[in-house]
């Protein structure tokens, strides 16, 4: 019968694959082993234009009250030149670099050196040491889930400073907004480049690495599956949530503080943005253990789009919705 014939052919293919062993094609997991022309063109487009698109959005808010069409109209009509827009853009400052370096260092300390205690007294919260999914090489990584704790500690210190210590102004993020953007860009490129070099020369697990032979694709999509420094510092988990998502609510609070400073009150829309985006951020950290089983951790490798995207896009563009 036809069914018996198909079953026989399937069995023959399985036996052939078993005999060939290593000659069998490797399974696809997370990203490609080979790069087609469309993928390469897409990668080159993103590498070239994604930074410019983010800059355009932020520049539009800074110089054109968040109008996305006015800059283009002014340029096309000859009312402005690119040099005019660029000259009005704040440059990188030592102050912003110091703020950003201190911020990232503080989040590294909270992530790597402060074990979670929230799961011990918050009912229903899953924190502490948790296992991730099985990697293609058969590795089960362990993670210290302490994002909610890091968020709570950070915001307690933020409000303590705003209402009691007064070491810095709560408008500090607003006042250094675009210079901080440059800092996030620099760190994103540094981390992405380091991750690629690490994947070539000292990977955490060589069996979980993927190489296509195409520099641009490997840089964009990543080589290592779970790059780590030491036993616990996982690049994916840290750079996905800590510098960017913890900062997300602080950025909104800083803008609210600036609104209070300038106008003497905080608008309903600003309150709504702070509340709704705060719920989103808290939802992420409440479910951080669940996040270990999502596509980002289970399938994606750590490359430019992961490193730079999380450091720059998550906090710096999502918070434009005010």
N-to-C order of helices and strands: HHHHHEEHHHHEEHHHHH
Give the proportion of residues in helices: 55-70%
Question: Which strands sit side by side, in order, in the main sheet?
Answer: 1-2
Query: How would you classify the helix and strand content by structural class?
Result: mainly alpha
Biggest sheet architecture: 2 strands, antiparallel
How many distinct folded domains?
2
Radius of gyration: 23 Å
Shape, per Cα inertia axes: globular
Sequence stretches where pLDDT stays below 50 over 5 or more residues: 1-28
Number of helices: 14
**Global mean pLDDT:** 85
Please count the beta strands (DSSP E, at least 2 residues each). Answer: 4
Cα-to-Cα separation, first versus last residue = 66 Å
How much of the residues is beta strand, in percent?
5-15%
Pathway: Steroid biosynthesis; cholesterol biosynthesis
InterPro entries: ERG24_DHCR-like, Sterol_reductase_CS
Protein name: 7-dehydrocholesterol reductase
Catalytic activity: 7-dehydrodesmosterol + NADPH + H(+) = desmosterol + NADP(+); cholesterol + NADP(+) = 7-dehydrocholesterol + NADPH + H(+)
